[in-house]
Amino acid sequence: MIIPVILSGGAGTRLWPLSRELEPKHLVDLLGTTTLLQKTVARLEGLDDTGAPVIVGNHAHHQLVIDQLAEVGVRPAAMLLEPIGRNTAPAAAVAAMTAARNGDDPILLVLPADHMIGDVGQFHAAVEAGRKAAAGGYLVTFGIIPEGPHTGYGYIHQGEGLAFSSGFAVESFVEKPDLETAIGYLASGNYLWNSGMFMFLASRYLEELERFDPRMVHECRRALDTGEEVDEGIWLDRSAFQAINGNSIDYAVMEHTNRAVVVPLDAGWSDVGSWPALWEISHQDDHGNVAQGDVLTEGTTGSYLRSESRLVAVVGLEDVVVVETPDAVLVCHKDQAQDIKTIVERLKQANRSEAVRHSD
Known about the structure:
The structure is a single chain. The chain is globular and about 60 Å long. Helices cover 29% and strands 27% of the residues. By secondary structure, the chain is of the alpha/beta class. The termini are far apart. It has 2 domains: 2-270, Spore Coat Polysaccharide Biosynthesis Protein SpsA, Chain A, CATH 3.90.550; 275-355, no CATH class.
């Protein structure tokens, strides 16, 4: 049995002003269809022997998550509500403990809620390829076949192929490279983008995490056991969860274990981590513009333009991002889009409401 674990935390600050702390990117309709959370649960349909998802996320988002899952007819097996963000390793740990409470030992398919995958069929094929390795006690990650020398992603160095699976042994995980290094990675043909998606037995993950960070396992179990059970799920105990040193699955387990396996994935993947990334996966007109809402352009090319509440007119610009919401307007060059997080930090320091939520 596969139990999907949907990681529904994070704020997506680089997609401000549409994404806010209390209305993060995976709970916002970025593409004019459904939210990224809804797309994540929808792509699970058709996977064999797969149960209802376990949702792990910020307690402040729980009602939004419940409402959005109800809109697509999904009822989670459990909702684990975090009082504070502590990254993905403890989130996966409390999900593993929950999934194994009745003596079961399912395979967990750990998926961030804020990714886009264009080819669901290829995604399903990769999951099936990883199932056998995960069932055999290996910890599987999915590596994205690179489309270019991207410097914004971590990479996975794949080793020898496995006799029992279409996956590969993991030689190493490497940090975000500079451009020259990334070009070398692509030329070698042995490096994949690190997707942050995983697959493993609940018991195996907890065993490996116990080896490398026993305190995290102890505090996660305490946060779960002393948490408050409510209709929406389990509110994890604040004092126990705050005691955890936050860490990612990669740093806490995958970089140390000798049982890491990578399955290559070529399925139109994006982590939608910035406005240029959203521009890339959206439909562009003959001038290379993506325009959503009430937008007029003249002599403008290669730009992402979005209006939420009023007319936006853009004249004579190239490669810009213009996003209008009722309480804030962003204008930036696509090359500077990574610096939006600095603006959000300044808003937080000034206790500005625009960092947290949209005005009614």
